[in-house]
## 1
Amino acid sequence: MSTLITNIGELTTNAEPGRLTDAALVLADGHVAWVGAAAAAPAADEVFDAAGRAVLPGWVDSHTHLVFAGDRTAEFEARMSGQPYRAGGIAVTVNATRAASDDELAATIRRHVAEAVAQGTTYVETKTGYGLTVEDEVRSARIAALHADEATFLGAHLVPPGADADEYVSLVCGEMLDAVAPHVRWADVFCEKGAFDADQSRAVLEAAAARGLGLRVHGNQLGEGPGVRLAVELGAASVDHCTYLSSADVDALAGSGTVATLLPACDLSTRQSLPPARALLDAGATVALASNCNPGSSYTTSMAYCVTTAVLQMRMSVQEAVFAATRGGAIALGRADVGHLAVGARADVHVLDAPSTTHLAYRPGVPLTHAVWRRGERVR
Ligand code: NIG
């Protein structure tokens, strides 16, 4: 079965050439089979007339926490009346998650992934981290791997209330990692005041690397700290948040293969500053944008909102923001087959109800997703 998407007003490929006008795409067997001028397009089994709309790769959401139960509206309301965001809020979701059945957790993640797909997201990473016992982290990892494209172990999200920090780190580095590692591709640690310090974070990351997992780090979310330096030193695929960076952090990221994943929806929802995207890009760092969807610090699945914010408030160009939310996320996840629309890429396609991607920022808050293909299948 092949599909010709034709009469594309503006096609963003994130490959060479980066943007085409009056273009067409052919999807076949779940992959992009042809890209070029609409006038030269080959025949296909079915035709979708984009009628001058913009087409781009599906969003790659490289940072979410979707295995959870419960709600933290009250905490959000308190924040909006001036209370600060604290890592300790994670424990509220841990209690609700432990009390939920596997079916309830699966239904919740399915609902959020479907919500994301309906807005143009076609590739989703998600994490454990609301279980914090061996049993609850393993079931979270199984559910994550089943319902998202990539699963990450985040047993080092918070020291469970009442637990001894060093004993908990030993558990994470030993029995918990042994049990979870077969279900996930990545390991992550929340390296921040109130969560895990540099030595504890290093221990977790080294233990994960020894089991063959790729590394990611939550760092520099609530203040400057060792997260970025550690991520770069250990060759992590990404360091996520990067809200508070010193110039040495920016230089370290620019000179490394570690992607700076920025989570602006989280920074707004927690009333933090927005990350220094311009400094990172100007220094030559690779930047990704992701939703950080979770019930505490960032309860949105909207990648368009992140792109809009990046353009309007972080001084990224539309092209930089769209790249960061597609190919940037793919690079952060070590995936060469998503986030772009060259021949051979996964057929993950997003059609906007607009003539250009500029409308994502020009028409903030307007739902612009018109059609979505995921692995070549029309899903919206
Ligand atoms: O990425 N920073 C740590 N973890 C999540 C927050 C989780 C929560 O508050 O429930 C984050 O913001």
Note: The chain has 13 helices and 16 strands.
## 2
Amino acid sequence: MDPVGYPDATSSPPGSPGSPGSPGSAGPGPGHDGDPPGGAALTDLIKALIRDVPDFPSPGVVFKDITPLLADPAAFGAVIAALAAGHGPVDKVVGIEARGFILAAPVACTLGAGFVPVRKQGKLPAATHAETYELEYGTATVEVHKDAFAAGDRVLIVDDVLATGGTARATAELVRRGGADVAGVAVLLELGFLRGRSSLRDLNLRPLMIV
Ligand code: AMP
């Protein structure tokens, strides 16, 4: 399975925001003033180019498939620019395996920052810090190389979808254990009905769109 975990709650009730065919709630979300990063035009692009795939990878889950967006060069470029904006100086950009890599690497290049992969357990070759967190059924572990950050680095965390927030929370802990500071958490899409942001209150969470 590609992402770290898929809570069954990612399936929206029919007619709820984010369910297939519903318009979703475009907007900057709590803590933001004015337009979302990239503006309403970008929100429209994201809405049009993220595909809901019901019952993947397991029954009851609505998978947010970003591959149509990645295949559209104008949309992909606009998303990378918006994810990179508004975080102040950034030394390193962390991408969360696996789709976070696709977004974080060009964000790092855009910002003139380094790229750091956060991977599932057992994938990184050198010495690692590890963080384990709860899933609906069982646990998951993410890791980062111990030497990935310099002391005091300002680190931007990037992923495609924020669901329960467990993966982003664990990644933020890895950054702190590496002696660095979290400058922000930038995601393409926040599944607001899962309230993942409640576990990230101390972080600067910037979704490009909330459904
Ligand atoms: P969470 O830890 O619950 O916030 O889950 C976030 C991770 O799982 C991210 O790496 C996402 O790529 C992935 N994920 C969770 N739910 C979905 C979903 N409905 N569609 C696509 N990816 C998801």
Note: The mean pLDDT is 87.
